[in-house]
Write a structure and sequence with these properties.
This protein is α/β, with parallel strands linked by helices and about 400 residues long. The chain contains 17 helices and 13 strands. The strands form two sheets. It has a seven-stranded parallel beta sheet, with helices on both faces. The protein has a six-stranded parallel beta sheet with strand order 10-9-8-11-12-13, sandwiched between helices. The longest helix is centred in the middle third of the chain and has 21 residues. The radius of gyration is 21 Å and the shape is elongated. The chain starts with a strand and ends with a helix.
């Protein structure tokens, strides 16, 4: 490499922000002594990594078709501002991170403007909207995938510009303290069963998913007063959102357990210290699976969203950990299947020693398929290789 580089990154939700931030750090390390200027759509973690915000990714992290419709002016403004920034600053490469509803459209525009487009974390086209593979074929120069089956899936359709780099979560999902230390920190007896509740990283997810989780906790606690519960909040969420959910449950006359612990930025520690977990479908199911805590995967969106989206989904499993395993190793409760009673029954089942041990064994086998770590470094090397090749031509 013989010059400093400019790279534009575009993320739009917390998980993409986290992956992009790790990639930025890896790119800096791999490129030394060459310096890289980063700018684009950046969330909190990307900003902490030194990415200049053309727009704030925080403002794009919404969910659901009605919400997207209401936020359309925001999306159009972001789309325009990012195109203008690319045109003005002429990055050597543009890395689009997940966020397919926005980024696939952006990929087409940016490619037509003559930029090299890299897509990091493949859109889940194997699950729905397979027709979008044409966009990947025509408007993406390099697709970096993090799930082991994706490269072969794209190859079936003649798309070869794909590289499996492994999951960036492997070797990065590590509790900072032991199970015993976490329990000691929060005065939880080692013999008391602890259940983690992970309601998602978006406000709409918490408002729809946390109330039935709390009702399940109430059902379980009424049968066993030894049970302890911990709500693991994403860094982007606040305790006030939990209080809103608690208020909804209490308002319906349900008595909640006396103590429900709330932690923030301690998700891995909380999950590791727990005997079982209820986890909103998404990246958190992989993280919980890597840690090895038996879980029930849950999800609920608005009835309108579900009716529109469900017919388009062509996969056997919603939970990423089940997709990796290639079979249903943890129970999934989606939409109407997700009820307080059903979740309480499943969590009770997961607390049975034999069941708990069997699920942990299956999770360990699935996690092995994600690779041996170093995904961010491999992705960084692939990005820099593409840029280097441009200057060698």
């Amino acid at each position: 490499m013989n010059k400093n580089y400019k790279i534009m990154l575009v993320a739009g939700e917390p998980s993409g922000d986290a992956h992009a931030a790790k990639l930025v750090w890896a790119l800096r390390k791999e490129a030394e002594p060459v310096e890289i200027e980063f700018f684009g759509s950046a969330g909190e973690r990307m900003r902490d990594a030194g990415v200049e915000s053309v727009i704030r990714a925080d403002d794009l992290a919404i969910i659901g078709i009605p919400e997207i419709a209401r936020a359309l002016p925001t999306f159009l403004r972001a789309f325009r501002d990012l195109k203008m920034a690319a045109s003005a600053r002429q990055p050597d490469a543009i890395i689009l991170v997940d966020f397919p509803e926005f980024n696939l459209k952006l990929a087409k525009s940016l490619k037509q403007m003559g930029f090299k487009v890299i897509y990091y974390i493949s859109p889940q086209l194997w699950g729905w909207r397979k027709y979008r593979r044409k966009t990947i074929r025509e408007h993406v120069d390099l697709l970096l995938t993090i799930l082991p089956f994706e490269k072969d899936w794209y190859a079936k359709y003649g798309i070869e510009n794909v590289e499996f780099v492994g999951s960036p979560l492997v070797n990065e999902v590590k509790p900072l303290i032991s199970r015993e230390d976490f329990r000691r920190k929060y005065s939880i007896n080692d013999g008391d069963p602890l259940i983690a509740l992970l309601p998602g990283s978006r406000h709409k997810e918490i408002s729809r998913i946390l109330p039935p989780m709390l009702e399940s906790a109430s059902i379980m606690a009424a049968k066993d007063d030894r049970l302890q519960f911990v709500i693991a909040l994403a860094s982007t969420r606040s305790e006030s959102e939990v209080e809103e959910a608690r208020g909804l449950v209490k308002g319906s006359g349900i008595k909640l357990p006396e103590r429900i612990l709330i932690v923030k930025d301690e998700t891995y520690d909380a999950v590791n210290a727990s005997d079982a977990a209820a986890v909103a479908s998404g990246t958190a199911t992989l993280e919980t699976g890597i840690i090895g805590t038996p879980m029930a995967v849950v999800y609920k969106t608005s009835g309108f969203n579900y009716k529109l989206i469900r017919p388009l989904i062509k996969i056997d499993h919603f939970g990423l950990i089940n997709l990796i395993a290639g079979k249903r190793i943890v129970t999934e409760m989606i939409q109407n299947e997700f009820t307080p009673d059903a979740l309480a029954d499943e969590l009770d089942r997961l607390l049975e020693p034999d069941v708990n041990a069997a699920v942990r064994k299956n999770l360990a086998s699935a996690a092995e398929k994600l690779g041996t770590g170093g995904a961010s470094q491999r992705a960084a090397r692939a990005v820099l290789s593409l840029i280097e090749n441009l200057y060698q031509k």
